[in-house]
Amino acid sequence: MKIDCAGKNEKANVVALYGEFYVFFAFLFKFVAWGKVEEYRYFFSRLIMFLISIVVCIINSSLAFSNQNINIPMNFSNWIYQAGDLECNLMSADFPYGKFYFRSDENNNITFVVSLNQNGWQWDNAMLKIKNAPWEKASDIKSVSSVWLPNSGAEFIFERNISHVLTSINQGKWMMLSLRGSNSSADQTITIPTVNIQEALQSFLSCRDRLLLSNQSTVQREQLPKMPFLDTRDREVVIYFAFGQRTLSNEQKMRLRALYRYIVEDSRVNTVLVDGYTDNVGPSVANLTISRQRAELIAKELNRLGLAEEKVEVRAHGLRYPVASNDTAAGQAKNRRVTLRLVRDNEQVVPADHAFSNVEKGKIQQ
């Protein structure tokens, strides 16, 4: 009768042991009662085999449920690099104890995934460590990441400090996996060699950097229209001026710096239209001059920040094209403005005399 020493079928083991003991005592009774030794030679052979199986089970059980220090042989250390459209993978190849792999996505989230071939273990937490290679003189072991295992299983993910782990591996360090349970007899450590990893590691790191740069460009393009002071439909910024104001405030300069960064990132912008306007206070000629001065003030600040002069077109309109009624102070404040419109390479610049025809036709806030 075969006994499962691995402990995977405890009920079957109990039944098997009970059957063996029953046969043992039955034959022993007959042996004592009748004294027939030769007839029970087969029984003694079975008894010896039974005792041997018990000893083997005891030894295996003590090994299975006591602290284990597993050192994966170096000749098993083989690492493979694989890349997808949105992720990079650095995987161990066919370790007998399970699979280990690093993964990096387009958001630069780097994880270390552990998938063990052992089931039924009641581990509470796992700790990832780095250590010196065995041929190093000093045995330096440092914990770098940990994960709690509320639902004990054979697969779990480390998410913290994995970039540091990769840097350490690049410097020749090995990894160690420490598994702990509520019962100390379930504790286990697995040493993971990193020999033969350098070529795959360099490919993985290059893939990670490439994904990160690509994602940064995508995020920047997607976030450009979300600037709070930029009209997303017309890509227009409006800067208001106080009555008699002839210099830029710090807040206005901050907005222009943000706009300049926007323009630098959006390579499609090839022209910035700067249009100056005033309220109706004072002579129209004076208002035309003031509107030009304010528009040129904006243009010079953009040039100072680094925007080429040929990309900036200044236009002055004076008191024409009000967006609000000049009969109130609030309306006048809205009309004292400079607008900056970003023109992309696939757009045409509309002449100033035609650009505001809709405003002249009565689309003015009262």
UniProtKB/TrEMBL annotation:
**Which Pfam family, giving just one, matches this sequence?**
OmpA
Keywords assigned:
Cell outer membrane, Cell projection, Cilium, Flagellum, Membrane, Transmembrane, Transmembrane helix
The domain of life for this entry's organism is Bacteria
Report one GO cellular component. cell outer membrane
Q: Which InterPro entries match?
A: Bact_OuterMem_StrucFunc, MotY_N, OMP_bac, OmpA-like, OmpA-like_sf
Alphabetical list of PROSITE patterns matching this protein: OMPA_2 (PS51123)
Domain (OmpA-like): give its ranges. 228-346
Say where the protein is mainly found: membrane
- Where is this gene product found? Cell outer membrane
CDD domains given for it?
OmpA_C-like (cd07185)
Any stretches that span the bilayer, and where are they?
15-35, 47-65
Checking PANTHER family in the record gives:
LIPOPROTEIN YIAD-RELATED, STATOR ELEMENT OF FLAGELLAR MOTOR COMPLEX
Please identify the protein, giving its name as recorded. Lateral flagellar MotY-like protein
**Organism the protein comes from:** Vibrio mimicus VM603
